[in-house]
Amino acid sequence: MTIDNEATLAARAPDGYDPSDYAPFAVTVDLTVFTIRTGRLCLLLVQRAEDPYARAWALPGGFVKPAEGIDSAASRELLEEAKVDVFTGHLEQLATYGDPDRDPRMRVVSVAYLAFAPDLPDPVAGSDAADARWWAIDDILDGETGVSLAFDHQQIISDGLERVRAKLEYTTLAARFVAEPFTLGDLHAVYTAVWGMPVRLTNFRRKVTSTEGFVIPVDGHSAPGPAGGAPAALYRRGPANELHPPLRRGER
Amino acid sequence: MTIDNEATLAARAPDGYDPSDYAPFAVTVDLTVFTIRTGRLCLLLVQRAEDPYARAWALPGGFVKPAEGIDSAASRELLEEAKVDVFTGHLEQLATYGDPDRDPRMRVVSVAYLAFAPDLPDPVAGSDAADARWWAIDDILDGETGVSLAFDHQQIISDGLERVRAKLEYTTLAARFVAEPFTLGDLHAVYTAVWGMPVRLTNFRRKVTSTEGFVIPVDGHSAPGPAGGAPAALYRRGPANELHPPLRRGER
DNA sequence: CCAAAAGTGTTTAAGCTACACCCATGA
DNA sequence: TCATGGGTGTAGCTTAAACACTTTTGG
């Protein structure tokens, strides 16, 4: 085999790989971090300071470091950008995006992640960002609101959103959106925010409490809201991860 | 920003990216191609000819080419290695694996895909492979059969297997495992092979035929088996992709 | 007392399970 | 006529949907 001095990778590949077969790629992680704020499903975006896509909004993320695993890179970015650790929230791989022209500068493959977090304070813009803030998902997708998105991030967000919606059906991950302890009303608000509206509260309550390990009662009661109402029982997250049978969203 | 002459990527990055932030990666696709042969769930593996892991079995796959999208690379490999086109079978992203030490030679990020195919002829080994064949999934995972797997492919296979099993519950993808036209008995055999056994045939039939768009009756009847039995009605795949409510495997 | 939110009971419809039974074919 | 596989009918159970109703709090 021949050595191509122009490519670091080729110089490092000892055997079995023909350098003419491949080019080096940059690998990044992009995060779709979802949370609920004032009853709306929100996503964390950062505003780009530099070209390409200067002033456009983009998913938080960054390069995977040379000695770092991809999942580790994602949790690092999650902690840096949203101050969320993996234990209070939830982090999973979403999909990988690698069209040759998704970044005009060079060949970049991005591994997208999906993260859920309980309500968080406003983020601070990082060094390479002009701004950072939570956007309501409706405002992002409406197009009218003036959120212009960088790269293929519109596609990633749309895939992430569909995944969140689906995950609430057959997992207990909705509980990752609320801080402990929480009421069944809080949990119900997560479903209505993520799905858009329906979900009969009365049957929802029965479903949640009858699913072993979804929520665990804790002592005490919530304070009633400003307009009154009975104090609600408090719960924390249980050990169950799956929901059998699933909680269906009203779209059939 | 400075230019690092040792890295092709860095030399190409015009703005906004600091070359000290990242290293170049090789990007590959690996395929978990599943099919049913003689009533058993099988997976396509190739035997490696070169070190590392010479003589060990590995998932078919290869490098993503410089001007090629990742999904395109996967369909190209699927066609090359298994002679399956995306239209008769099914191809979707599984997950991305990128631990720093998963390949001892260099930093490789692999995007794994999941593919389903109807029964296929025996594969032929490619140029860089010593052998290629279908393995029953039980024999691969048993450990006793002597199938030693390269890289982290044991993990990828295990993730792929779990995904196939789950997908049969809530999608109509089982029909991608059978050639058209097929009988309900053929389809039932897919479920028992993938899940391990149960599935009540009598209720299974009702579920499949009552799900709008799962299967479409075609004219004609199958020839009975060697030991007799009635001729079975024939079907082709319908347009539906999802199964609501799902077909549960007996594990609750 | 009224509005708002928490929580319970009950009726009805739908879906799934299990099992019995009949039909068509080849040996 | 028997074994084998295809296919239907039906009773009974479990679950989910819909809606009525009670309780607790703040104004």
Summarize the structure in short.
Two copies of one chain form a homodimer. Chain A is an alpha+beta fold and 252 residues long.
Overview of the structural elements:
Two copies of one chain form a homodimer. By secondary structure, chain A is an alpha+beta fold. Chain A folds into two domains: 24-168, Nucleoside Triphosphate Pyrophosphohydrolase (Alpha-Beta Complex), CATH 3.90.79; 171-237, Arc Repressor Mutant, subunit A (Orthogonal Bundle), CATH 1.10.10. In chain A, 25% of the residues lie in helices and 25% in strands. Chain A has six helices and nine strands; from the N terminus they run αββββαβββααααββ. In chain A, the strands form two sheets. In chain A, strands 1, 2, 3, 4, 5, 6 and 7 form a seven-stranded mixed β-sheet that branches. In chain A, strand 2 and strand 3 (57-58) form a beta hairpin. The first copy, chain A, is elongated, with a radius of gyration of 21 Å. Chains A and B meet through helix 1 and strand 5 of A and helix 1 and strand 5 of B. Chain A binds a DNA duplex (27 and 27 nucleotides) through residues 183-185, 200-203, 205-207, 224-233, 245, 248.
